[in-house]
């Protein structure tokens, strides 16, 4: 029997948090395997939900406050203090995320990370010695310029006037005055959890790869790319950011270039899963699973480049665990994600994007049920002999193949209309 099912999804952008996705998948599992043990592990990648998840995992707490949002207006936001008390988690998406940018205002040439710097300052006010900044789901492309301004740096044009917000303005940057930069940064460990595949400049630079998703036209993409090239040059010259390749270094393009801006003031850019998943004991929990279910909004050729399903599949395969990935959409390369044994789209029929976003939880639950019933049907075909249930494996040791399962009952009617 499938006795132990691990549910380890990411969130679905602008639709479901990782926790909501895990709950929806678990509901689908319950319809087919009512007696199975379900281990829900909502996974964060530095984007939406990171602060909440890490506060919960460590027995910490959230600190609520107001800060400057991505379009320059105040927004209600938060950062987390982890249970040990010496580390704060600043989630950039909670103050500068794409979901906070109204659709009619989506212009990455004008949006700002100013609020991220305000959250870092507020975290420093609590006396923590370490600040972890989670990057992901950003609505900005200003290279972290706004964050540095909030931390006390002055970004000046050729006439000595301070630049307004937005990545578009970086083309006019002539000099950075760092004399007012918050002195506490020198005595604080500043870590950035980021996707190492994201770089600041070049053909795979962040403006070209992600600018269109944030509302940039082709002309704006080129304008933003040129601004980030200038930003990297001035950062190196005026802040002495030597020894770090701010243009092409791993993670420098994280969250519209926030990685590069923070690296220039001493932050360490680290692969996000190495930093975030250690708090969740993920490997040991995967090792105990008979089946692993993961999910994200879109499964495609980008998934192996630092997305949650690819990381879950990689780790699950260390213990020989089968992996099923569910996705809002299946794009080119969806069937080629290493470690994913099968994938299944949650859309049963064409529908408007607004409807799909609104009904994402329902669609994900129904899709989980359909996929599991297909798995169980396959286990009952002639020649598919059942195998004895496996003992709980030890992490790091090879694991036997998950047993076949049998289930009785009939397909319940789908709620999809």
Description:
- The chain is of the alpha/beta class and 417 residues long.
- It is 31% helix and 17% strand.
- It has helices at residues 18-32, 50-58, 93-96, 114-125, 145-150, 206-210, 218-239, 254-263, 272-276, 282-287, 308-317, 353-358, 360-379; strands at residues 4-7, 37-40, 61-68, 74-81, 87-91, 130-134, 154-156, 175-177, 189-194, 268-271, 291-299, 323-330, 342-345.
- A 6-stranded mixed beta sheet has the order 3-4-5-6-9-10, with helices on both faces.
- Helix 1 (18-32) crosses helix 13.
- The longest helix is centred in the middle third of the chain and has 22 residues, at 218-239.
- The chain starts with a strand and ends in a 38-residue tail after the last helix.
Quickly list its features.
single chain; 417 residues; alpha/beta; six-stranded mixed β-sheet; 13 helices; 17% strand; disordered C terminus
Unreliable spans? 386-393, 399-417
Strand portion: 15-25%
Radius of gyration: 23 Å
Distance between the termini: 32 Å
**Range of helix content:** 25-40%
Question: Strand order of the main beta sheet, please?
Answer: 3-4-5-6-9-10
Class by SSE composition = alpha/beta
The ordered H/E elements are EHEHEEEHHEHEEEHHHEHHEHEEHH
Shape: globular
Q: Determine the number of helices (DSSP H or I, runs of at least 4 residues).
A: 13
Would you count the extended β strands for me?
A: 13
